[in-house]
## 1
Amino acid sequence: MSAAEVHMALAGRRQREGRRVVLALGGLVALVFCLVFLTLSCGRGCLAPADLMAALLGHEDAPGFIVNDLRLPRAALSLVTGLCFGLGGVAFQVMLRNPLASPDIIGISASAGAAAVFAIVILSFDGWVVSAVAVVSGLVVVVMIWALSSRRGAAGARLILIGIGVSAMLDSVTAYVLLEAPAWDRAEAMRWLTGSVNGAQMGQVWPVLGALVVFGGLLAAVSRDLDILRLGDDAAQALGVRADGTRLRVTVAAVGLVAFATSAAGPISFVAFLSGPIAARVMGPSRGLLPAAGLIGAVLVLAGDYVGQFMLPYRLPVGVVTGAVGAPFLLYLIVRTNRNGGTI
Amino acid sequence: MNVMAKARQLTAQELSAGYDRRTILEDVSLEVPAGKITAIVGGNACGKSTLLRTLARILQPKGGSVLLDGKAVHQMPSRAVAQVMGLLPQSPIAPEGITVSDLVGRGRHPHQGLFSRWSAADDRAVEAALEATGTRAFAERELDTLSGGQRQRVWIAMALAQETDVLLLDEPTTFLDVAHQIEVLDLLVDMNLARGTTVVMVLHDLNLAVRYADHLVALADGRIHSEGAPEAVLTEDMVRAVFGLECRIQRDPISGGPSMVPIGRHKSQLA
């Protein structure tokens, strides 16, 4: 190839790749939109689009209660928590160069969940305070896992195994607190054990949306440095990226996203873990992995919740459905990772 | 390569460095000749990589300083250093499925701002790097599909795309067969001649280091044993002190310079 041909080929490829990123992200946004529409309009029976619009606009004769008080908060909570789990998950997976290192496998979701349930049930906190407790607890667990695995940034099996141990410990804390709870209620328990958007209220949505803006923004600001960090610490530093500083910011952002989402909807099983690898398959090696993972997270929660509510013989919380999808994928990843040591 | 490198003064002053409590490098003072190729040689664990990583600002020194044009690099912003000095580490990691041109493009990172888009200068730098390393033909291929020698050339292309005046390389020829070793070293000389890039590399093949370097630094136990022109540094005494090996020095029939022939306990005709 001549220099001119290479120039054309590279420029053409970048253009194609740009189009591909836009197309893929656009497709995912459309899918999320469809699922939101489905959640709003269809329950046992389906509303006509005109009735749905009328209800959303607050017309008197429209089924306003069902749409605005039941379905809208549910769809909104599914959307924002899905985005948070997807973004937080992929950030950890990319940073630690291992798909198994997602926050729900290495105990960060579990710690946020345990802290939230403790704050609500034992300390009777609510609102932002619960989320703040969950974030702090998540950060404490990250520090603990890093200290125990004693190799900062290393994505070794050691870090993941320690994370799994910590996760199991914290799950038992959650179970214990729930047993101690005075008004023991099965739906509430399911929320903290597997994650659920049942009984969602708009009041739960706003803190998660705030977290999405703040921590999502932080993540977006470091996303280029995060991408360079994939080349290894030395190569990244040689390219002007401060490895430790980048890791710190990514960790705070990811823990913030996951902890806020968890304190609202519980640790919705495997959404953080599944979103990144699925996004990587959708996007290929091109850019746009982070937003794609966020959107996939939203798709998983919205679709999982709809399936759990209306497409199975029993009504199940979303975490049970995503868990049933996630567990086989976890096995597949472990088998595949052992075979070729693949990253995300 | 159209952009000429500026001559940069890279010096180490009474440098000590190591990991945790262990000090590996002690009191090393070094002046890297600008626009020349410097090779660092020495036995295993003598501190070669530690010296390179400290020069490259990756490792914080325990004592002394590294100066780039008179300024302490460890006090400079990472991005500013990365615009002037590049490093190819011993085992960089390639993201799965990445294409050659994409990886080479990563070398442009220090020249891009948070919101700045890919520019024509970035394009030119990547194309020139592909050209110089002979990797243009597989610009579109995935890195995983290339041979070891080709992959190493791509990594060097990434470092070239960074367009730094100083390039540090940590054992750029490890894991390569002898033909590819020569290919990579020839490429570094090409680049040095064409752009005037200052090259500092750690090499473990003493004879190749002697042949390709303008300036040779022999390290032993974290200290500089000797440095200077390869003809002056490569002596039987130096090899004994640095590597603990008996040898003969003879003339390299190809380069005309010295070359080392090791003496082991077996296969020797010496009395």
## 2
Amino acid sequence: MEATKKTILIVDDEREILLTLREFLEMEGYRVLIAENGFDALKILNQGEIPNLILLDMKMPIMNGWAFALEFLNRHDHISPIVVITAAGDAEQRARDIGAIGWVEKPFDLNQLLKKIEMYSRKPPAPTLPISL
Amino acid sequence: MNAERYRTLLDQLQIGIVVHAPDTSILYANQFAAKLLGLQVREMEGRLSSDPRWKFIDETGAPLGLSDYPVNRVLKALKPSLAQVVGIRSSEGSRVVWALCNAHPVFGPHQKLQEIVVNFTDMTAEKELKEKLFDLNQLMQSALDQSQAGVAIADAKSGKLRYLNQAAFLMKKGLAGEHIKDIDVNTLASAWNMSDLKGNPLKNDEMPLVRAVKYGEKSSKEVYLKLPNQESRVMWVNAAPILNPEGRVSSAILVLLDTTERHRLEEELHRTQQLAEAATIAKTRFLDVAAHELRTPITVLSLLLQFTQQQKERGHAVEPETLIRLRNQVERISRLVVDLLDVSRLERGALPISPKPTDLKSLIQECVEDFKLYSASRSLTFQGPTDGVQANVDPIRIYQVITNLLENSRKYTPDGSPIEVELEIHPDLIRVSVTDHGPGIPDREQGALFMPFSRGSVELTERSGGLGLGLFICKRIIELHRGRIGLMSKLGEGSTFYFELPRKGAG
């Protein structure tokens, strides 16, 4: 049973968001990993985790969403789809900037977030394609 | 030729000829002479120089003395009297005809004076023209001397000055006592201490007046001119050649305009515009940051509420912990809103300050105790005098300032590093300081810290967890208490934020 659970990595510097989303997604049957910035998220990925989906905030201290996406795409053989979560008005543009599969604008509806997670995490992680930035 | 023929010929001349006998009586006058004197030829013959009907005047307009009549000058000196200008007043007295007179003695055998021949030409037109030119010249010079602009006119052939007005004269250094007409344009160019707008001294050949004289070139440039009193002015230097009717450069004129004030205004305008633009950009960025900062707690609030609802739908009870989390987010939003309102009121000058006698020591201790409740992991020490410290302040606002400084120290220094609060009494002022042992603040960032929306100027990609308004609000609150807020910081050692309040009265 444990093995079939999908893994979601949430990267956000707002601890309350991390905790609430983790509680909610665990209740919905997901395995949830959390990181407070891009640097911590990379540490988790470097341990060999391949999440089915990454929910990524853009503005964070230490390592922001842009820097994280760049490092992640360059260093990892398998890429997990990224969904950008942002409070900025130009979520779509930000998602496009880093090659994310989708975006969610803060504040958001939990059921809609769940639908997006279900939709985007269906695909297995794809091998990394060479990218030029 | 006979005498009659000579007379006819002499009458054709446009020169007046009068021949006097040694007793000054007129022996002969030709037609032109008679016409100039306003008489008939026959009316003239036989008259003496002392005849009261002659109405001669000198150049000043005064009646010509009898001894100064050309004929009498010759009689007295027995030699020619040349180039004498004599005015002849018409019989009705209103019109004056001007004549240029030459008088020669004619000697007979044994050097005996036989006749005096006076010839004269009509120079009325020339004299009137000369007077007009003189007037015009005077007019021009006095106008130019009144002018604030410097004017110099130089002769192209000699390269020497023909004219220098007062303004131009006062701008130069040295050359005292030299006659203007002896100064050449190169000397003048050196006497004006000019440099280009980059500060390089102007070479003589770059000087517009020199170029106009030398190459017949019209040119202008803006320069710095250092006045003899060392004051530096911005000058618009403009020179052009003046051509004679044949199209050759006869002289050159230079005009110097002081444009310092215009420059200053332009620069001021430019600065104001830049400031206004920067302020607009800062405000726009600030709005972005504010919107972002407000959205975060609203997102958390919304998430918690949705999650609670879902749990309830699944039959779970609402945990008391969740309610505290919800309240924290509401408080976070209200703090942001209060900051925004404070700034808005400060900008309008409408932040109310209600000073009342307050014990600052107790107030600071209250801040410290409240802070400890929320930051148990921090070592926070307070040092102050043993007795209470009375001051006339708004306790709510001063509490706000101290709490803000403590909050900043907590936020920007590593967890566990100590914070010290100190209250000092000086003869004129009370000083409150908050010292941390964090990374310190680079000098170049210190100035902007107390400005509104300063956080708005940092990259939006960095989250800082605030609006960047705190220190601005603190500064204004302290200023409203006639105090001063400041910062001392050393990289790697930490920062001390302090404020000073005057000891007698505030607000």
